[in-house]
Design brief:
Cytochrome Bc1 Complex, Chain D, domain 2; 6 helices
């Protein structure tokens, strides 16, 4: 066999074996990405209670519905007398509050969240 033919065969063999490794690594990466996507989809289930949705989506800025990065939610009824106004505000966001589009919070979750927010009681209300 000629030396050139041996070199070509060696190159093909090396390419085939390393290409297979790269391919299996790519398959593993794709499978991991699919698992991450499935976990995210499960986290976005509409089976969550309003409180769970609040904790997932709102609590970091309104900790326990009190002032944090965002304002306390004790005046919610004054600022948003109807559920429609509150839902519109949540969907659109304003200032530092990010909007919550349907991809982040679907209609069922939004309804559960609004119901939970309307049921919040604060110390001032308990004193009345």
């Amino acid at each position: 066999m000629s030396r050139i033919l041996k070199v070509i065969m060696l190159m093909v063999l090396v390419g085939a074996t390393t290409g297979g490794c790269a391919m299996s690594e790519e398959i593993r990466r794709i499978e991991e990405q699919q698992k991450v996507t499935q976990r995210r989809e499960k986290q976005m289930t509409t089976d969550l209670s309003g409180q769970q949705i609040f904790i997932r989506s709102c609590n970091s800025c309104h900790p326990g519905a009190k002032a944090g990065m965002g304002p306390a939610l004790d005046k919610l009824g004054e600022h948003f007398p109807t559920d429609d106004k509150l839902k519109k505000f949540i969907r659109q966001g304003v200032g530092m509050m990010p909007p919550q589009p349907k991809e982040a919070l679907d209609d069922v979750e939004l309804d559960s969240l609004v119901q939970y927010l309307r049921g919040l009681t604060f110390e001032e209300e308990k004193k009345k």
